[in-house]
Amino acid sequence: MELFRPLNEQEYTSLIRYLRAKILERLGVKADYEIDPTHLVKIAELKLGVFVSIEKLMYSDGMIKRVLRGSMGTIRPIKNLLEDSVTAALHAAFYDPRFSPISIAEFKNCVLEVTVISPLMDVDMDWVRKEMILGYHGLYIVDSGKATILLPQKVVEIARIIIKGRVSNLELTTSSRSFVIR
Fold first, then answer.
1. CATH homologous superfamily for 9-175?
2. Closest to 88 (Cα-Cα) out of 172, 8, 149, 141
3. CA dist list (Å): 44 to 25, 32, 38, 106, 133
4. Domain residue ranges of the chain, discontinuous segments joined by +
5. pTM score, whole prediction
6. What is the distance of C-alpha 132 from the center of its chain?
7. CA atoms within 13 A on the CB side of 10
8. Per-position pLDDT tens, the chain of length 182
């Protein structure tokens, strides 16, 4: 299986810097990140789904842990990858209903993670059991009319449920980090 890699490492870095700058701008802070504009042009040409997760770095028991602080996105493109990423980042920072809007002090201790979503494709449970790459593929599960999105970083936690075959209707998409199953 050829891995879905819509952006290279430098383009991802430019995108994350751009999203950090947009969040800081909304907080009233001028960001001075070096961003290659040619990367942003390429990103704006792509039409793919995207999720932006914000994780707060917490120190506990002598270890650094990443704790979810907000996550928003779409499995299908609305405009283009750049605009959809900005919308997702701002919604994750300020409008995720699970959290209060982020503050400047809190954002300084946060990291952004961008997951670019490929087009959906159908798979069966046999494929999930034998071919799925944990940590790379994500899931879009529809069960009894309710949809759940699990980004790749969360799939590992629920892998036992899927392997046991408790999900029957699957649709898959691959991404730089995820594919979606329904």
1. Hypothetical protein ph0010; domain 1 (3.30.700.20)
2. 149
3. 20, 21, 10, 29, 28
4. 9-175
5. 0.82
6. 18
7. 7
8. 678 889 999 999 999 999 999 999 999 999 889 999 999 999 999 999 999 999 999 988 899 888 999 999 999 999 999 999 999 999 999 999 999 999 999 999 999 999 999 887 777 778 777 888 888 888 787 777 888 887 887 776 666 565 666 555 555 444 433 333 32
